[in-house]
Design goal:
Layout lengths: L1 E6 L2 E4 L4 E9 L6 E7 L6 E6 L6 E3 L7 E6 L4 E6 L8 E8 L17 E2 L3 E6 L1
Parallel strand pairs: 2-11
Antiparallel strand pairs: 1-3, 3-8, 4-5, 4-9, 5-6, 7-8, 9-10, 9-11
């Protein structure tokens, strides 16, 4: 079993920054790809960013490119999402997800169905 716990959300003004963290426990974290998703009120959950098991590959949604950075610290079993130049449209609940279907793979995916485990989410609110 895998447990994912997000933290770092909060209220920030437009143009500000936040760093989200996702701490993983349970199965060996470092073998697996990780992703961040978000869900705004009244909208479906959408992909934000993903990182391969090695950290050498990352992929971002168009809305996140150039502003967000995903990274991982395997020694701490933690994946991060650094969010810069935040906009009101970034307001959402942000979820961390783990792809434990394959290990030591450089493949990363944007679809929710490719992720096995999810955190409870952390709220990010960007005021204008």
């Amino acid at each position: 079993q895998v447990q994912l716990v997000e933290s770092g959300g909060g209220l920030v003004q437009a143009g500000g920054s936040l760093r989200l963290s996702c701490a993983a426990s349970g199965r060996t974290f470092r073998r697996y790809a990780m992703g961040w998703f978000r869900q705004a009120p009244g909208k479906e959950r959408e992909f934000v960013a993903a990182i391969s098991w090695s950290g050498s590959r990352t992929y971002y949604a168009d809305s996140a490119k150039g502003r967000f950075i995903i990274s991982r610290d395997d020694a701490k079993n933690t994946v991060y999402l650094q969010m810069n130049s935040l906009k009101p449209e970034d307001t959402a609940v942000y979820y961390c997800a783990a792809d434990y279907r394959q290990y030591y793979s450089e493949n990363i995916y944007t679809g929710e169905g490719n992720y096995d485990y999810w955190g409870q989410g952390t709220q990010v609110t960007v005021s204008s």
